Amino acid sequence: MLAKRIIPCLDVDNGRVVKGVKFVDIRDAGDPVEVARRYNSEGADEITFLDITASSDNRETIVHVVEQVASEVFIPLTVGGGIRTEEDVRRMLNAGADKVAINTAAVFNPEFVKQATSRFGSQCIVVAIDAKKVSAEGEPLKWEIFTHGGRKPTGLDAIEWAKKMVDYGAGEILLTSMDRDGTKVGFDLPLTRAISDAVTVPVIASGGVGNLQHLVDGVKEGGADAVLAASIFHFAEYSVGEAKAFMAEQGVEVRI
Amino acid sequence: MAQRISVIDYGMGNLRSVSKAVEHVADSHDEVLVTDDPQLILSSDRVVFPGQGAARDCMAAISDHHLNQAVLEAAATRPFLGICMGLQVLLEFSEENEGTELLGLIPGQVRHFEKGMNGPDGRRLKIPQMGWNRVNHCNEHPLWRDIKQDSRFYFVHSYFVSPEDSALVAATTDYGINYASAIAKDNLFAVQFHPEKSADDGLQLLKNFVNWKV
C-alpha cells in the first residue's frame, strides 16, 4: 500500500534557511544542505524549499541550493516561490528539483499551468493554493483563494479553483489554510477534506501543525495524501522519525 | 577497473538526478556521462535509460535524437537499466495519448490505472500514484542484493506495464491492482519507480547495477 508522506518544508532566503532551525547537533543550521541531509537521515519522504528571497537579483541563489542538495540527498525535492515562467521551471528542474510549486502565477495566469504541464509533464507541476474561510458562522462552508500571504482576496472559490488546476494538468495540490498557517492548532480539516474529495490527484495538507496528532488528523479526517510541516520539525520539537512512529501507531501507513 | 556508464539524454526528465545518484555509488575512477550520442552510448560498459513525461513525447524525443537503434542495441548487449518511462517505452504499445507505438523490445502493453479504484482503507486512489510504495521481488536477481523484500521505493506514474511473458516480471507492487514494477531479461533490468529518488534502497539498487556482472 502507498504510504502517506511526511514533508518538512524549509523557508530559504538568499540561500539560507530562515525561521531559526534549531538542531543541537548541526554545525550550521542555516545551511540548506546540512538541514536537508538531516531530514533525509530522519526519514523525510520529500523535502520542500520555499524561496522567500525578496529581491529578484538574488533568485539565482536558490538554484545553487537545489544543485547542492540534489547532489547529496536522494529523495524528491520540491521548490516553490517565485516560479513565474517556463524558464523558471526549466532552471529548477535542471538544477535537480523534481517538482516545482506554482502559486501566485497560477492565479494571475492560469494558462501558465497548462503550458508548464504540457511542456514538463504533470508529474513535476504542483499547484500551491492558499485558501481562507469566507463563510460566516452557520453558513455552508466556503473558502476563497488569497494571494500576498493571505492579504488579497481573489474571488476564486477554493474547490472550483483546485478542480480547474487539475483540469489544467496539475499533478498535485499543495493546500495551505491561511487561517491556520502559523497557529499550531491543526489543519483546517473540512477544507482539506473538501479539496481532497474534489480532485483526482494527491493533496498535501499544510498550515497549522502544532503536534503529531494533527498530522494523523490531516490524513485520517482530512483525507490528505501527504502532510507538510515546518516549525515542529525545525525547532526539533519532534523529529520526522518520531512523527512517523506516532502515525504508524495510529494506524497510518508510513514509510519507516 | 574503471568503466564508462552512460545516462541517455533525450531531453525527457531528471537526467541530473539520475547521473548524480549514479556518480554517488560508482567508483571514483568510473566515468559517468549524460549523452545523446549513439556512438558514446554504444562505447559504454553500462547504460541507464531514464525518462519522464508523456509516452508520445518520449517516443518523439527518442526519434528526434536518432536514438532508437542505439537504445535497442544497448539493451541487447550490455547491462541496461530502464527507469520510469525508460521502462514503459520498451514495451510495444501504450494507451497514453490515444494510443502510442513504443520500441517493442518487450511484448506487452502499457495501461492506465483505472479511474475510481479504492485502496484498502476504502478511500479512492489518487492518480498519479505519487509516493513510496512496496516492491515485492519475484526472484533473486543480483539487482535486489542487500535490498529487503517489500522495501519502499518512490513512484510517480499514471500508467503501468503489462508484459505478456510473466516470467519477465522481477517485482510487483499493489496500487488498486497488482502490477509489474520491475522487469528483468538477461542483461536488461527496468523499473517503474525512481531509484535515484528512493533514498538508501534506491542507491543500493543503483550500486548493484553498477557492479552487476551479466
Structural commentary:
The complex is a heterodimer of chains A (256) and B (214). Chain A is an alpha/beta fold. Chain A is built from ten helices and eleven strands. Chain A has helices at 32-42, 60-72, 86-95, 104-108, 111-120, 158-167, 189-198, 212-220, 231-234, 240-249, and strands at 5-13, 16-17, 47-51, 77-80, 99-102, 125-133, 143-147, 152-157, 172-177, 203-206, 226-229. Chain A has an eight-stranded parallel barrel with strand order 1-3-4-5-6-9-10-11, surrounded by eight helices. Chain A is globular and about 50 Å long. In chain A, 53% of the residues are buried. With 214 residues, chain B is an alpha/beta fold. Chain B has a single domain (4-210), classed as Class I glutamine amidotransferase (GATase) domain (Rossmann fold), CATH 3.40.50.880. In chain B, 24% of the residues lie in helices and 32% in strands. Chain B contains six helices and 13 strands. In chain B, strands 2-1-3-4-13-12-11-8-9 form a nine-stranded mixed β-sheet, with helices on both faces. In chain B, strands 6-5-7-10 form a four-stranded mixed β-sheet, covered by helices on one side. In chain B, helix 1 (15-25) packs across helix 6 (199-210).
Feature tags:
heterodimer, A: about 260 residues, alpha/beta, 8-stranded parallel beta barrel, 10 helices, B: about 210 residues, Rossmann fold, 9-stranded mixed beta sheet, 4-stranded mixed beta sheet, 6 helices, 13 strands, about 25% helix
